[in-house]
Amino acid sequence: MVEQTVLGVFFFLLVGHALGDFALQTDWMVRHKNHREPPPENSCRHPRHIWIHLLTAHALVHGGAVALTTGMVGLGIAETLAHWLIDYGKSDGRYGFHVDQLLHLGCKAVWLMIWIVAG
Q1: How far is CA 67 from the centre of its chain?
Q2: For residue 49, with 0-12 CB atoms within 10 Å meaning exposed, 13-18 middle and 19 or more buried, which class applies?
Q3: Which of 17, 50, 73, 84 could form a disulfide with 59 if both were Cys (CB 3.0 to 4.6 A apart)?
Q4: What pTM was computed for the model?
Q5: How does pLDDT run across 19-59, given as a tens digit for each residue?
């Protein structure tokens, strides 16, 4: 069993982020979770608003990683919402990749602080 230390929890929050944003996300998902991208070519098989489903599924992966790491479902829900909004903002052109990643990592720091206080 992994010891639940502050460093350990922060490490696994970062691992969860790396898995969710890079290892588990396909190029197809990256493209089609963006609401500004046209839908996939065969729109009979893929609904016009598939981006909502892809972005939500992607955010849920992140929320699940946070909930599993911290043992706090509320933080997982907060991460799901925050990740969804941050990625939507990036796809809306409000900021680029680096700001997107800093916002995500900032959320992880907030979740860690809440986890520490909740003790």
Answers
A1: 12
A2: exposed
A3: 84
A4: 0.92
A5: 999 999 999 899 989 999 887 776 556 677 889 999 999 99
CA dist list (Å): 114 to 3, 35, 40, 63, 102? 18, 32, 40, 15, 18
DSSP letter string over 15-54?
A: HHHHIIIIIS--HHHHHHT-TTSPPPS-TTTS-TTHHHHH
- The type of residue at 64 is G
Distance (Å, rounded) from C-alpha 62 to C-alpha 103? 14
In 71-118, which residue ranges form alpha helices assigned H by DSSP?
73-91, 97-118
Residue boundaries of the structural domains of the chain:
6-12+24-118
